[in-house]
Amino acid sequence: MTSAYEAWTADRGAEIIAEHQHVEGGALVILHALQETFGYVPEAAIPMVAHALNRSRAEIHGVFTFYHDFRREPAGQHVLKLCRAEACQAAGGDALAARAEQKLGVKIGHTTGDGRVTLEPIYCLGLCATAPSAMFDGRVIGRLDTARLDALMAEAQR
Amino acid sequence: MTIRIFIPRDAGAIAVGADEVAAAFEQTHAAIEIVRTGSRGLYWLEPMVEVATDAGRVAYGPVMEADVPALLAAIQSGGDHALRLGVTDDLPWLTKQTRLTFARCGVVDPRSIEDYRAHDGYQGLARALTLTSAEIIADVTTSGLRGRGGAGFPTGIKWKTVADTSADRKFIVCNADEGDSGTFADRMIMEGDPFVVIEGMTIAGLAVGASKGYIYIRSEYPHAIVAMKAAIAAATRANYLGAKICGSAHSFELEVRVGAGAYVCGEETSLLESLEGKRGIVRAKPPLPAHKGLFGKPTVINNVLSLATIPYILAGGAQKYADCGSGRSRGTMPIQIAGNVKHGGLFEVAFGITLGEIVDDIAGGTLSGRPVRAVQVGGPLGAYFPRELFDTPFDYEAFAKRDGLIGHGGIVVFDDTVDMSKQARFAMEFCAVESCGKCTPCRIGSTRGVETIDKIRRGERVVENTAVLTDLCNTMKFGSLCALGGFTPYPVMSALKHFPDDFGAATRLQAAE
After folding, report:
1. What is the pLDDT of residues A107-141, one digit of tens each?
2. In a domain, A1, yes or no
3. For an interface test with B, which of A34, A46, A72, A124 has the most B Cβ atoms less than 10 Å from its Cβ?
4. B9: domain CATH number?
5. Range of B165's domain?
6. pTM value?
7. Cis peptide upstream of residue B222 (ω within 30 degrees of 0)
8. In terms of domains, do A119 and A151 share one?
9. What residues of chain A have any CB closer than 8 angstroms to a CB in chain B?
């Protein structure tokens, strides 16, 4: 499968930053836009964002690292997020998370060695009445059970 | 004759196959019109499909993709079907509710401003446009509405403070960073009735003299983001937003901003920092956001549900709203029932219903069929309640009196397989992961809390470590700036108090004697 993301170039990065530069308080808007385009926020972009917003590089680095969403490197080809919050715990989420870790051979928060799957925790998708919940490449999944989880992991391996 | 079929596009319904069901209906090429609505909130029956009939809408559920051909044949022939639930409005789960905030959710097409207007939408704004600022605020005060994010601060007082503060710019901020596990009411209303949020914010703008609003939606809610953006575009086209709204002298524009996975940004001052493009670090109060909020300007910051209730109140419902409820908790609360439950979903009801009624009667007990052991009310910062406290009425003060909180109205049910020391550990762990780091009790205390609970769980000096944990919780409760550090002790201490056996305390104490 080919990546849905563009390869980083400073020119393209500058273009995206310029597009949102005048949004009031828009540092998160710019970081989101960069990540949507490149799949992560390249380190080279941080000083560019800082310059455009007339803020220090340390400040923008601080913003970038504060939020769990922003990636410093590309994710695997597929991203499987498992909800680890209380409602999903109550519905058997812990066992599913353990199964995913065991089957994929990675701890939550990591990417498989072949770069196929990134397994991540998420704290609540708001699907708590159909728990346990997951998100697979942006698609929401409720009533997760071992069969569905295994199917998702198989899909990710294809 | 074309049959109208309603299928939710709510994320909770999509997560269990609503899109596939809609596609299967389309593939039949039958004479049908599919309307994608929000969810009615009966999630154990999702995907719930409704069909327009002379007797009203008739519901079927849970419908799977494979059910569609036979179901369609039954619908067309007027025959019965195993999944037929009856006339939707007569379903007991719905008849027992008082749906004021959620009146339209699951009924209307959330993409259609015409449908919103056809179901009493924009009547609150129409009336607000004829009132003075003081009159609008008087209505909100009369209703008794309190902040539905969890803090329960009277909305009318907040608005009056902003209205009375003069500035060149003021803002309305809608807090849609609904991060509490077990809550989804904000998501549902944004996806199912987004115009009501827009109308509520517009009325707030009129009341306090603000011409710009922001809706800060968490990134975990992609469907809500799409729904709100589409609704803002539609409302702008119809001149309900923008310059000189509805031909009046007032202007109001709205912008959606997306969070980035920080739980603490649900705290209002942290959210404002985030909106300003900064780290979501909590601010010390005072100054209040009402005096110095977004970009240092007077700001109304309200939860989605608070704002979504405003149109009902301004459409002449202020007194009717206040007539519902118990004690100082007036009106209705959209309660969200989740976790290990037979019947999970959204249940809007007047304050005063007991926890036991919600868990046993409405939710029908656990899905696993095992006994209910603990119920966490109010999200990750809410207390765990044992069955002995099921007589607690659902209102702000009654829960506070029992060392708990109703928070944003989420209820998570656990069966008897739950290990409460593990849940207490999770509360501390979550606080450690999500702490913004501003104040020491939260930043350091949460990590020390995890370590101390681990020691207790391993059986190390249980009595001494329990005393340390209790002391630590006391420090966090009184020494933290915001609810994250300040309320994490609720789940921890309630677990310790009501379920001591899970901490090994009882057995080990006996052994020591």
Report:
1. 999 999 999 999 999 999 999 999 999 999 999 99
2. no
3. A124
4. 3.40.30.10
5. 113-323
6. 0.97
7. no
8. yes
9. 24-29, 31-32, 53, 59, 62-63, 66-70, 83, 85-91, 122-131, 133, 135, 138, 140-143
Domain containing residue A138: CATH number: 3.40.30.10
Answer whether B101's CB lies under 8 Å from B350's CB.
no
Closest by CA to B362, choosing from B41, B58, B21, is: B41
Residue numbers in B near A89 (CB within 8 A):
423, 426
Q: Mind telling me how many Å the CA of A144 is from chain B's nearest CA?
A: 9
DSSP assignment of B282-351 equals PPPSSSPTTTS-GGGS-EEEEEHHHHHHHHHIIIIIHHHHHHSEETTEESEEEEEEEES-SS-EEEEEET
Evaluate whether B148 touches B306 at the Cβ level (below 8 Å).
yes
The C-alpha atoms of residue A127 and residue A83 are separated, in whole angstroms, by: 10
Give the other-Cβ count within 10 Å of B293's Cβ: 26
Count of structural domains, chain A: 2
Q: Residue B104: inside a domain, yes or no?
A: no
Residue B453 token pair: 């609970």
Are B202 and B170 in the same domain? Answer: yes
Q: Name the helix (H) or strand (E) containing B231.
A: helix B222-237
Give ipTM to 2 decimals.
Answer: 0.97
Residues B7 and B68 grouped into a single domain? yes
Q: Is residue A60 part of a domain?
A: yes
Q: What's the number of domains chain B is made of?
A: 4
Regarding whether B318 and B227 lie in a shared domain, the answer is yes
Question: Cα angle vertex A83, ends A88, A139, to 5°?
Answer: 120
Does A127 contact B181 at a Cβ distance shorter than 8 Å? no
Same domain assignment for residues A47 and A96: no
pLDDT tens-digit profile of B446-494?
999 999 999 999 999 999 999 999 999 999 999 999 999 999 999 999 9
